Amino acid sequence: MAIIIDENTNVVVQGISGKQGLFHTKQMLAYGTRIVAGTSVSKGGTTIEGIPVYDTVQTACENHQIDASVSFISAAFAKDAALEALEAGIKIVVVVTEHIPVHDEMAVVAYAKRVGATVIGPNTFGIVSSGKCKLGIPPNKFFIPGPVGVVARSGTLSYEIVGNLTAQGIGQSTVVGMGGDRVMGLTFVDVLKQFEQDPETRAVVLIGEIGGNAEEEASLYIKEMSKPVVAYIAGKSAPPGKRMGHAGAIIERGMGTYQGKVNALVEAGARVVELPFEVPGIIKEILSM
Predict the structure, then answer these.
(1) Residue 278 CA, distance from chain mean position
(2) Is the dihedral of CA 36, 109, 125, 282 positive or negative?
(3) Residues 24, 64, 103, 246: which is the catalytic one?
(4) Which residues of the chain register pLDDT less than 50?
(5) pTM higher than 0.85 for the full model?
(6) Which of 35, 41, 71, 177 could be stapled to 125 by a disulfide with Cβ–Cβ 3.0 to 4.6 Å?
């Protein structure tokens, strides 16, 4: 089994007719994702790549069984798009959009919790159930089925580490991007709990970065896990007080430092690497035990 999504997940693409929505719809289809509908205001009744397009998510849900949405709606309207999907009863909402105002993100995540839905992101690369389904923007070629679960705050580092794993013949069960903003739906702990219960996942790679306390919180749960965790933390050389790419990657008042995160993870029993290319070797060693 995969976590969160699998080959049976029926998907709606919000913003399917936009430049990014269209490009990544084609990529998701090529990976095998079951996209059953798209939405685009004023384009209801048309088709794109053979997919029926509707003006609203509610109309799409009235015509199709939909399990998940992936949104490519611009930041100004991303909150409304996410709430529209949640109000229509969709239980998995992937928000790729970056630069969403913090208060908008807070409203979306709070509403999702009230209705028992899962938000992945915002500002996420998405989620991949390797060989089965992809929601978001990761390059198809890197993701092959296997026993390693990956959870990350960074997209490009995920591609690098997953690419290195794949090059060594090590596949992945599910790869989850939490998003790089201060406010996020899924947390490290949420995903680690699912990997711990997933029989297909034998080891976990956690890709973190400076800023916030998500990795420190994860370390508390890692102490309870039966499955081994390998971690990489980005931002070792970052100067305090300066944002490094992600809104959440900033050290403030001594909190969220590289060394603090490393210490917490090591104390919890995780194996922390200093460079991304070191991950496959350690994973191979763990899987051979």
Answers:
(1) 22
(2) negative
(3) 246
(4) 253
(5) yes
(6) 177
